[in-house]
Structure formats: structure tokens, C-alpha cells
Amino acid sequence: MTAEQLISFARGAPSLDIVDVEGLKAAAVRAFDADPAGVTAYGTSVGYVPLRKWIAEKHGVDANQVLVTNGSLQADAFLFDHLVRPGDAVVVERPTYDRTLLNLQRMGSELHGISVQPDGLDTAELRKLLESGVRPRLAHVIPNYQNPAGVTLSLEKRRELLDLAAEYEFTIFEDDPYADIRFRGEALPSMLSLDTRNVVVHASSFTKTVCPGVRVGYLVGSADLIADIAKNATSLYISPGMVSQAIVHQFCVSGDIDRSIETVRAALGERARVLAESLRRHLPQARFVEPDGGYFLWVEFPEDVLVDRLAPAAAERGVAVVKGSDFVLDGGRHALRLAFSAVTADRIDEGVRRLAEAVEAVRS
Question: 77 and 110: one domain?
């Protein structure tokens, strides 16, 4: 099986055809022409200052509430390092992003997984956990088109989560890299924008709206929090990459990012629709929630389909998938995450057909 023949639903990255390469090349030229000294210098630990200002305006906050980082994973790491100590209780969604789980486990956190429903985190289950006496330091939530489940936290639950955070004195970490990749329905306000009690720290990234290679993410929080984390960033690396951040800034201020988002939305909306149709046709026994945006769809199979057997069987047939067990503390033995972002619409049905063959093989 050659790389060209492989159909990969594994990686949450865009296919090259929806990356605005020409726009990025032009943005790079403008960045060096407009600010050669700023682009080539070390810069400051808070990031490229013009981009920091642009992000602040996007979110309606002061610039001193923004820290621009080398990708959102670094933003996550900075926040975890600042807030979480070994033994601290931390709430995560079940399922959730696998690297979040790994990083928090490495820190010695006491992790509490809360079920994800079609309308997002089960806030009733969270309330029961809190009423039992658990006092989390942090709750990590991906509110829009969640990775891996693809679901969106409802407005009612966003407000309830804010109330719970204020009542039980924990920080909501709103990890929100997919918010702009909406291809159905109406956009919901971020918890950051709804927060009046200073309980939310927000993170996002340009990975999904520009391209992964720029490695530019950011944190938005209180000015004091950002100042403290910036001190740690100075000690760690002096400053993040100014070249990438200056390119992203030019890409944003020119309006290219808006055009890029529309391209990504249109392409991924079609891919999500085709994937859902193909699953219904080839795997009618599978259960899933069709996403309104983002990159991912979570598929649950009957109990006689074990993903430890299914994943290698799919690989033998030229389909790459990620096991659901990678995204939970325990369980996930009958689920897969399918990323439709990197598979063009004309190859999705064939990929699902191969996956259906693999399912039949492991059930027999």
C-alpha cells in the first residue's frame, strides 16, 4: 500500500488544497518589508506585538490580556504549569484531546472525566462530582466541535458551567481552536465573552484557520495571569517565533484569513456531509453525531467490534484511524475518531467502504 493509496482519517490537519499557500507567501513578503527589525529580532515573551493587538481586538480585551505562543499546545502547557500542581483535581471531558490527557497525567493531576453528550459536557454529572466534595483546580473544555467528539457545548450549558466555576471556585480553560470552522448553524458566544467573574482562560490557534506549520497559538486571561506566565516564557525561550507570528499578522490584517476560513468551511462542510452519508450507507449500525463544524467525527460501534482489532484491520485495507481508547482515561474500546479534514471528498466514501470491510472482518 503506497502513501498515495492510503486514506487517512487519523490526523487532524487540513489537506494542502485548502491551505492558502499563495496568500502566505505574499504575507511573508509583506511582513519582512513592513517590519524587518521586528521580524528578525528576538522580540518579547508576549509575542509579536502587532499580532497580540489584533488578537486582543478580535476578542474585545486589552492587549495585556493576551500571550501569543508557539502553537496552542504551548499555551496549554504554560497554563497547566502555572495553575496545576501534582495531586490537584482537574476536570476533563470524556472523551477529550489525547495530548491534554497525556500532559495532565505527566503532571500528576488527579483527573476526573465528565461525559460528553450531543450538546457538550454533561453539566449535571459535573455538578454531582462537585457536590461529592471534589474541588478541581481547573476544568478543561473544548466547547466548539470538540476534539474528538465533534459536538458543541450549548449556550445553556456554557452559562451553567460559568455558574459552577464561580460557585466552586475553579478555572474554566476554554480550549477553542475550532470556533471559526463552523459550516452549519449559528455561532455561539465564547465563555470568555460571557464571563463577568474572571473564571475563564481562553486559548486558540491559527493552526486550523491558516495552517499547522505556522505554529502560532495564544492565551487570553487576566492581565495578572498573563504577566506571570510571560515571566516564565521569558525564562524558557526569551520569545516565541517572530517570523511566523509576523506572517500570521499580515495574513490577518489583509483579510486573507477571512477568505481562508471561508475556503476551509466550505471544503470541510462538504467532507463532513459526505462522511456522514457514507457511514449511514456502509456502516448503518454505527452511532455518531454529525458535527456542525471542526475537523472530527466520533463513531461508536456495537460491543462485538473492538477497536484494538479494528484499527490494524483497517490499516491492512489502507485506512488509518485513531482508536477511541486514546481519548479517555478508560474505555473507548468500541469507538473511533475520524478526522475528515485531510481527506478530499472524492476519497471519503472509499475510505468508509474499506473501514466497513474491516468491521465485518473483526466481527466474523
Answer: yes
